[in-house]
Amino acid sequence: MTTSPIAPPIDTLGYALALGGASLFSTKGIFVKLALAEGISIESTLALRMLVALPVYLVILVSLLQRNGQLRTLLTPSKVLATMGVGILGYYVSSYLDFAGLAFVSAQYERLVLFTYPFFVLLFGVWFFGDRMNWRLLPAMFISYGGLLVIFTWNMSIRPQGLFIGTALVLGSAITFAFYQHLARRQMLILGSALFTCIGMSTAAALAIAQSLIVDGPQAYAGFSPSVWLIGLTLGIFCTVLPSFLLNTAIARIGPRGTSSTASFGPIITITLAVLILGEDFTLVHAVGTAMVLLGSWLFAHRESASRAEPS
C-alpha cells in the first residue's frame, strides 16, 4: 500500500511578511506624487527617500557585524560586489524607473502595472533559472493584462500625454524588480536576508544620493519645506526600510514566486489613497480594469500555490 506525498506546510509567517511588505510598498506612489506636486525633481525625491533610509541600514549593518563575528567571514570581495550589484538593480534602477514613470501616469495605474511583476518572475524563472513552466497560469496573465489594456485605452482617450513613456518606464521597473527577486534569493542564501538588505540598500542609497547631488546640486536641499522633509521621512522609513526587510525575509522563506503571489492588497490600498489624498478619478472603467487585474492575480496565486503543493 502506497501513501500519497504529504504537501509541505504553508509558511504562514513568510506569507504574512510578504503581505506586510507589499502593503507598505504600495503607499510609495502616493508620497512620490505628493513630492512631485511640491516641484521636487525625480532625482531629489529618490535621494530624499534614501537619505532617511541610509543611516538606518548602516546602523543595522554595524550592529549585525558586531553581534555576530562569523558574518564578517562571509564578506569576501566577490560576495560583497555581487550583493551591491543586485541591490543597485532592485533598489536603484527599479526605483528610478518607477519614480520617473509616476511623473507621467496616475498612482493607481502605476501600481496596477507594477502588480504584474509576478508574471515576469515566472517567466524569468523558466528562462534563466531552471524553473518549471506552469501553462495553467497563462489565462490568469491574459486576464490581468486585459484589465491593464482597459484602463490604458481609457487613459488614451482622456489623458494620452506621456502615457506610452510612463507605461514603459513603470513596466521596466516591474521587469527589473522581477529579475532582482531571483538574484536576491541566491545572495540571501549566502549572506542571510538582513545582511544582504543592508549592503544592497546602502549601495543603492549612496548611488541615488550621488546622482541627486550631481543633477540638482546640494543647494537644492536648503530650499525644501518641512512638508517635503516629512514626505522624505515617510518614504524612507515606511515605504523603504520596513518593507524591504519584510519582503527580503519573505523571499528567503517562501521564495520569489511565493512572495510575488501575495501582493493582492497593494493596488487596493494605492487606489483608495489615490482617490482620497490625490483626488484621482475612479470610474466604472477603472473598476472593471482593476477587477480584471486583481482577478488575474488571484487566479495566478491560487494556481501557483496549487502547483507548488503537487508532487513533482
UniProtKB/TrEMBL annotation:
Record localization: Membrane
Q: What is its main location?
A: membrane
| Membrane-spanning segments | 12-34, 46-65, 86-106, 112-130, 137-156, 162-180, 189-215, 227-247, 259-278, 284-301
Keywords in alphabetical order, please.
Membrane, Transmembrane, Transmembrane helix
Q: Which Pfam families match?
A: EamA
Protein topology in the membrane: Multi-pass membrane protein
Annotated GO CC locations: membrane
Q: Which SUPFAM superfamilies match?
A: Multidrug resistance efflux transporter EmrE
Q: Residues in domain EamA?
A: 13-152, 165-300
Lineage: superkingdom: Bacteria
Which protein family is it in?
Belongs to the EamA transporter family.
Q: What is this protein called?
A: DMT family transporter
* Species, as recorded: Devosia ureilytica
> Which lineage is the organism of this entry classified under, starting from the top rank?
Bacteria, Pseudomonadati, Pseudomonadota, Alphaproteobacteria, Hyphomicrobiales
